[in-house]
# Entry
Amino acid sequence: MFKRLCYLVAEGFEIAAIAAYDGEDGKNARILYRVRNSAGQVRLRSEEFEVDERESAACAQFFMDYLQSEGLS
# Structure
């Protein structure tokens, strides 16, 4: 998830939200980001990941830094 989050930011996608929750089975984290379709309309996309506590914390810190850099915090 961390690598994907970094990639999306580097490529200029607008990250709307990230979420992670306790769970031992399956995917327990999500990135929600905005994309424009060919007509120029904004759509939301969601991707799910399985992360551990360390990766979840790294994603949270990266997202907070992203919000600050965008003047959104």
